[in-house]
Amino acid sequence: MIQTLSKSDIRKNFLDKRLQLSFAQRFALSKKIHNNLIKQSAYRKSKNIGIFMPIQNEPILFLDHRKINYVPVIKNEHLQYCYLRKLLAQKSFNILEPIKKEHVQVKKLNLLIVPFIAFNEDLHRVGYGKGYFDRLLSLIVHQHYRPKIWGIGYQFQIYQNSFQDKSDIRLDKIITDRKIYE
């Protein structure tokens, strides 16, 4: 009999694993993820990219300065994206955000890269449980023009069972250090 964990148990187990990474391990795995990311033709064609500022041992994102990068900020309990500037300050949940905020409509992004704590082969993600990305994704997933939505994480974050419910949004692709899921 397959035992399925609750999302909160999945969150705890996989976050604990991620937090055990040394900086050297995180850096090496992040380089592999980056190499898999830049091989994607949709990435190479994208100009405006929504990225995230890594926390709690999330993969390091190596910025391509030929791209225009935007980062999420929380405003009125919703995520919005702002142009990534050099001057940053720690804000909600100790995440770095631009001091001067120039917002962009999410539909103007070509690619949206999102983090996760765990994922499955059905391209669903488990986040931190606050619902910020889920609310944003539910607003844009059915739009005629929308960015591609890709998850970025480590291969060891895969959970073999289904955990999603009807409110979870399926990603378009997940890129790890070892494999690309489509």
TrEMBL record:
GO biological process, alphabetically ordered: folic acid-containing compound biosynthetic process; tetrahydrofolate interconversion
Cofactor: Mg(2+)
InterPro entries, per the entry: FTHF_cligase, FTHF_cligase-like_sf, NagB/RpiA_transferase-like
Any one Gene Ontology molecular-function term assigned to this protein's record: metal ion binding
Positions contributing to ATP binding: K7, S8, D9, I10, R11
Reaction catalysis annotation: (6S)-5-formyl-5,6,7,8-tetrahydrofolate + ATP = (6R)-5,10-methenyltetrahydrofolate + ADP + phosphate
This enzyme's EC code(s): 6.3.3.2
PANTHER family registered for this protein in UniProt: ATPASE INHIBITOR/5-FORMYLTETRAHYDROFOLATE CYCLO-LIGASE (PTHR23407), CHROMOSOME UNDETERMINED SCAFFOLD_24, WHOLE GENOME SHOTGUN SEQUENCE (PTHR23407:SF11)
Record-stated family: Belongs to the 5-formyltetrahydrofolate cyclo-ligase family.
Protein name: 5-formyltetrahydrofolate cyclo-ligase
